[in-house]
Amino acid sequence: MDSLAPDHVPLYETAAEQRRVWERCAERGLPVVAVRDAARGYVVRYDLQHLGRELRPDVLQRLRDRVHAFRRQEPRVDAASQVERIGGEVGPVSGDLHAPTEAVARDLASHVAATVFDRSNWRYEPR
Question: Which residue has the higher pLDDT, 96 or 39?
């Protein structure tokens, strides 16, 4: 799998639903890209930890740039953290990105999935 259409992005609300999504991805050897229905909006989550992989540093920066372009916002914080600029955390193993609506979250998740699912973007997680 190298892409995920917005309509196919898993949506979960409870811890049990989250566990099922992570287990299903682990069984298939896939990274997790899903949307959590949170108390104040939606959170796009991606995770490669169960695969023992992480995104390469150059890919991580491209993903941050891609998320920033998706949001079309001007930088508001220093380039080192980029937390406010991209609306969440984008890390090498996992990330959480906030979105105001389910539709925006699904679209963002689809954009993130294109990078996260591409195995050429991975490296073994350093121990």
Answer: 96
